[in-house]
Amino acid sequence: MSLFDRREKDSDLNDEIRSHLSMAAKDRIQNGQSVLDARNSALRDFGNVALVKEATREMWSGASLETFLHDLRYGARMLAKSPGFAVIAILTLALGIGANTAIFSVVNGVLLNPLPFPHPDQIVSLFTEMPNFKNGSISYPNFEDWQRMNRSFTAIAAYRSTGFNLTGNGEPERLHGEMISAGFFEIFGVNPLLGRTFSENEDRIGANPTVMITEGLWKRRFGSDPNIIGQRMILNGVGRSIIGVVPSSFHLHIQNFQRGGPANEVYVPVGEWNEPAFHNSRSAAWGLDAIGRMKAGISFEQAKADMARVSRDLSAAYPDVNGNRKAYLLSLKDEMVGNMRPVLLIVLGAVGFVLLISCVNVANLLLARSTGRTREFAVRIALGAGEFRIVRQLLTESVLLALAGGTLGLVLAKFGTAAAIAAMPVNMPRAEDIGLDIRVLLFTLVVSVISGVAFGLIPALKTTRTNVASTLKESGRSLAGGQSRTQNIFVVTEMAMALVLLVGAGLMIRTLFVLWGLDPGFNPHNVMTFSFAGPASFRGGPPEAVRSAQREIHDKLASIPGVESVSLSWGAQPMGSDDEGYFWIVGRPMPPRSELPMTLEYDVEPEYLKTMQVPLQRGRFLSASDDEHSARVAVIDESFAKKYFPNEDPIGHYIDLNTNPSDPDKAPNPQIVGVVGHVNQWGLDSDSSSPLHAQMYLAIAQIPDTAIQRSGLGCDVYLRTTQPGAPSYEEIRHQLLAGNAELVVHSPLSMEETVARSIGQKRFSMTLLAVFAGIALILASVGIYGVLTYLVGQRTQEIGVRMALGAQRFDVLRMVLSDGARMTLMGVTIGLLASLGLTRLMSSMLFGIKPTDPLTFAAVALLLSAIALLACYVPARRAMSVDPTVALRYE
Predict the structure, then answer these.
(1) Degrees (nearest 5) of the Cα angle 485, 486, 490?
(2) Range of weakest confidence among 16-25, 38-47, 63-72, 231-240
């Protein structure tokens, strides 16, 4: 409706009302009433003129929009008249909405957004389920049979994580990469930026060596050369033709594929790998996993049933190896998300409490502010405004506040999301998908509007219950009693929710203290680990040349000032990579190979025990005399000894580590010469739940010649320094390269950082819960401070009367503090009861602490009570300073 039309209709409406009143007055004059009495009688019978006009206007076309715009303008003016109130309310809401937006952006990126692949629900991860591992790796012969025998997949592709030395063009460099089978990228619908993917003819032994590189490597190493296809690069001494460039938009973080490790930069065909045992042995998995795309119309359950059939057929065909092995399927999204889903949902629930506390705080502010506007609303009601009209106006103001808070919250959320990503563990899934997208913006808008209605509704309804007559005669204090009761309820609610958050944060803090207090089985302080790889010329050469180079590197490292001890290592790395092998105790009846137990294998030097400070319990550790010319020896850990030698001394027994007589690495069985403490292999919070605990140490000098020839010169290094950071990794690397410029030294990491990473997820949860609990504590404290300040102001005259009648200042202090203590006690009690139920949802996140840990509950209750009473003290002190003379004149 145009402004001109509105004015014209208003004029017509006024004329019609005047005409009606004039006619009604004439009728009454004709009946004998005076002019004044007739006019007044006509007005009484007609009713409230303003109300009639308002009702009539609401029926006009476009009136609703016009009224809404009027409410917006009026609401904005009213907020502008109270800038202090508006700023505090907006900041409070911005904290709550911003925190929720930041966490929702994480949940949205990790859990809600679909994977960036065509029909991602059809993609599944495939593993081998065995006694020690539900998601164990797959032997290559089994993988080939899975491809051939399944009826549910359009394609199944394998992948295996590995590293490559890039040489021949500039300084040698270590590149992380994957061996993949043909069809791998097609499963994900990934098209190369340049070139093509691997063909089946290239994915076999004897094929022409090829490689695909990533867009990042193409830019970094080759200057984005558009003619890169067909060029050659030397990886591990093998010249390979570059056939394609993988776009940087391809992200995949799953087991054995870039989860928590360096970014992939090269891909080579896995079937081309000329390793006889890899292609022929069904017992060795070599870290191979698979991915598959289900056919259209095939459900996940149907695919599982189909692969169960394949597993049964393979078990029947190869009972000695596959007797207790079967395929294990997991949806790709579940594989990527892992166990972060419950963590993120709990954190999202926690941050929701922060928003509720923010809303309650603003509702308290609105209630206090409404006291000053009671006369305004009484006048409006007296002039004909209906309750709905008043409520709508107040809700418009509260939604305006919420939208302003949401806008500022988006800014805070941008920084909060960046902070959350920085606090995430290294292996956080889908971190690249986290951001402020359209879904997050809509979430913020919806949360802002709902919050505005939520915190504005109760104050609005309370305001409309005004006794108009008494309000127009009095100062408006008649509302104070009812409003203070509502405000008290709000404060109690805030206290309860804040306590729940504090208990959750306290439980996580206690969990981390328990974890940090655990003995990992070694001393990580001042220990650095890194890796090195030698030139390809060592591969396939004399084993003695490799052993000699290893000794030279060991001596070079040991001679560096500040190095206390050093050990080279193969195989498993504590809290890093694992290396399992089947074994049997010589002299005992051997079961089928599919039922053989497994042990973690560490191939190390004699100084490993000193470097890692693993305690020796019985016998001896490896010595310098345990070399390639002496009888093989082994040292087991206490878990191995307890499980397999429960009632006898293991020292002197022999272990068969190569149970397959045709294994090319078959070597004499080592004799157990010692027992050491158990090393925490799977992480501080995961080792106790792992089914594989047995550990064995072998002499790196006694590695079979065939294994050395196959692998060449390459080891991990554990190095203990006399003081932190000295010598630095760069100094060590420089010293090694000075002795052999062809070495590639890479992947430095302190063992302290390794231990910290193992509990990264719990540290992430604790950090967020602690931040939210801190915000909740501040808001709850501000809430109780604000309510008591308001109550002191309302009771100024009462306090003056009490003091005039003889009450002492301490009595006033006690009176105000008792009000605060009463609200605090109620909030703490309700919060404790709620926490007893809600913290059970955190059971999977805790370690060594029960969800109902009494120490945490007691400490948090005392902390919240102390801070709340401290917040009460300031208004209590203000009440003590009231001058009775002034208070008795107070209006």
Answers:
(1) 115
(2) 63-72
Q: For strand 655-656 and strand 584-585, is the pairing parallel, antiparallel, or unpaired?
A: antiparallel
pLDDT of residue 371: 61
- Give the residue among 481, 546, 487 at the shortest CA–CA distance from 715: 546
Quick one: which of 115, 119, 123, 159 has its CA closest to 249? 115
Dist CA 576 CA 758 (whole Å): 9
Computed from CA positions of residues 859, 861, 867, 872, in that sequence, does the dihedral angle turn out positive or negative? Answer: negative
First to last CA, the chain: 47
One-character DSSP codes across 709-766: HHH-SEEEEEEEESBTTBS-HHHHHHHHHHH-TT-EEEEEEEHHHHHHHHTHHHHHHH
CB 290 within 8 A of CB 156: yes
Distance between CA atoms of residues 363 and 554, nearest Å: 69
Burial of 857 (0-12, 13-18, 19+ CB in 10 A): buried
**Alpha-carbon gap, residue 697 to 699, rounded angstroms:** 7
Distances (CA, A) of 832 to 218, 238, 460, 802: 58, 66, 31, 36
C-alpha to C-alpha distance for 855 and 510, rounded to whole angstroms: 10
C-alpha gyration radius of the chain? 38
Of 118, 138, 151, give the one whose Cα is nearest residue 270: 138
Measure Cα distances from 278 to 272, 285, 291, 533 in Å.
11, 8, 19, 22
For residue 377, the surrounding DSSP H or E stretch is: helix 374-382
Tokens standing for residue 251: 């992200």
**Which residue, chain included where needed, has tokens 């590149």?**
175
Q: Residue 106's closest CA among 450, 350, 330, 332? A: 350
Asked if 457 and 367 touch (Cβ cutoff 8 Å), the reply is: no
Cβ-based burial of 223 (10 A; exposed 0-12, middle 13-18, buried ≥19) = exposed
Q: Answer whether residue 666 shows pLDDT above 90.
A: no
CA distance 785 to 787: 6
SS3 408: helix
Alpha helical stretches, state H, 795-808: 796-804
Q: Rounded to the nearest 5°, which phi and psi values hold at 175?
A: -115, 140
Closest CA to 756 of 537, 575, 511, 514: 575
Q: What is the pLDDT of residue 34?
A: 82
Helix, strand or coil, per DSSP, at residue 569: strand
3-class secondary structure for 436-492?
Answer: CCHHHHHHHHHHHHHHHHHHHHHHHHHHHCCCHHHHHHCCCHHHHHHHHHHHHHHHH
**Helix, coil or strand: residue 299:** coil
Structure tokens at 401: 């506040």
Distance of CA 619 to the CA centre of its chain: 45
pLDDT on residue 477:
45
Could you give phi then psi for residue 210, rounded to 5 degrees? -130, 170
| Long-range contacts of the stretch 818-822 (C-beta < 8 A, 24+) | 819/788, 819/791, 819/872, 820/784, 820/788, 820/868, 820/869, 820/871, 820/872, 820/876, 821/869, 821/872
pLDDT tens sequence across 300-349: 999 999 999 999 999 999 998 888 889 999 999 999 988 888 888 899 99
